[in-house]
Design goal:
CATH superfamily: Immunoglobulins
Structural class: mainly beta
Helix content: under 10%
CATH topology: Immunoglobulin-like
Distance between the termini: 48 Å
Strand content: over 45%
Shape: globular
Radius of gyration: 15 Å
Number of domains: 1
């Protein structure tokens, strides 16, 4: 059995200090994992070995403490589709470069899944125009 969290080929590019919506599909053995009432945590880390508590950015679904639909929203539960919403303040203070992202899912029956640490890269780019409009 394998569980895959698919996202833009595994690499996400974001311009520092901007909004970004990341759509992901969660699959188990190449079949969409039903996310009805699932809990989801998205983390962005400087080093793939960093503890989740040390993540530069953490986003959670509304059914977790500190989470909300403005952070992670399950948009098509039966087909395993969710969206992670980054806002300018999430990345404004971070240095440009490569970060590692991870996504963990806990289904309504208590099973937990996620992508392998370090398997996905997040590229934070610095825009030519540094000041927001």
């Amino acid at each position: 059995m394998s569980v895959t969290v698919c996202c833009e080929g595994g690499e996400i590019s974001v311009i520092k200090g901007t909004d970004k919506t990341i759509q992901m599909t969660v699959q188990k053995d190449d079949v969409a994992l039903d996310l009805t009432n699932a809990q989801v945590v998205f983390v962005l880390k400087v080093d793939e070995n960093d503890a989740d508590a040390d993540a530069s950015v953490t986003k959670k679904t509304a059914n977790l403490a500190g989470g909300g639909n403005e952070q992670v929203e399950i948009t098509d539960a039966p087909n395993g589709v969710l969206k992670v919403y980054l806002v300018p303040t999430d990345t404004a203070s971070l240095d440009g470069g490569t970060y590692y992202w991870g996504c963990r899912v806990k289904t309504s029956d208590g099973k937990q899944f996620g992508n392998r640490a370090g398997s996905c890269k997040f590229v934070l780019e610095v825009a030519i125009v540094a000041d927001p409009i």
